[in-house]
Design goal:
Helices cover about 45% and strands about 15% of the residues. The protein has an eight-stranded mixed sheet. The longest helix is centred in the middle third of the chain and has 16 residues. With about 230 residues, it is an alpha/beta fold. It contains ten helices and eight strands. It is globular, with a radius of gyration of 17 Å. Strand 3, helix 1 and strand 4 form a beta-alpha-beta unit.
Length: about 230
Amino acid sequence: MSKTSDTYGTYYKYNKKNEKDSIVFIHGIGLTHQIWNDQIDFLKNYNTIVYDLIGHGKTSLNKKQINMKDFSKQLLKLIDSLKIEKIHLVGFSLGSLIARDFASSHGNRLSSLTIFASIYKRTEDEKRQVINRYETMKKNKDVTKKRALARWLSEEFIKKNPKIYKKIYSMLENNNHNTWLKVYKLFAYHEDDDISIKKINTKSLIITGENDIGSKPIMSENLSKLIVGSEFKI
């Protein structure tokens, strides 16, 4: 467990086993590096890095506003500080948008890219829904957390996995609400840049869940069509 020496004060965990390229995981909005615990345990014989995004967990947000480039710069500074030349990058939800942005600008630092549960080209109705959630979040932080989990996890899954539900809720609960709002606003008003996406030339895998109501399969399928040579899976 460490903190980087960069200006972001990024909190991270680095499991180094050898000199091969590390796998870096980027979590989603409102979560922390801990969401990847099971994956890190499964990949315990590989080099892995998990970290808290700006404004999440133990990494503070010291700006009035934040943009996607701030998150890409954070990742770049992290791997530079660890003297890592190339990584396998995995991004989930908000993390997938960051991974896309990073890949379009710093593809020379990637050995592979996995875009997991990414939004792409929301319809006008979908845009309205996420902006409405942002407006509701400004008024009632507790309701929005419960609604988020209801979107992310089915009732059946929650009944069978109460510990996972409590773990994720705890991450959301421990977030600074005003900080979360700044980041969620960025996510809610995100507009896709096809020109930037087409710059990605890394070996890429685009995946999402068949029942994901936010990052729908059609979004990932259409995103994959823009990234030359990428593989798409549901």
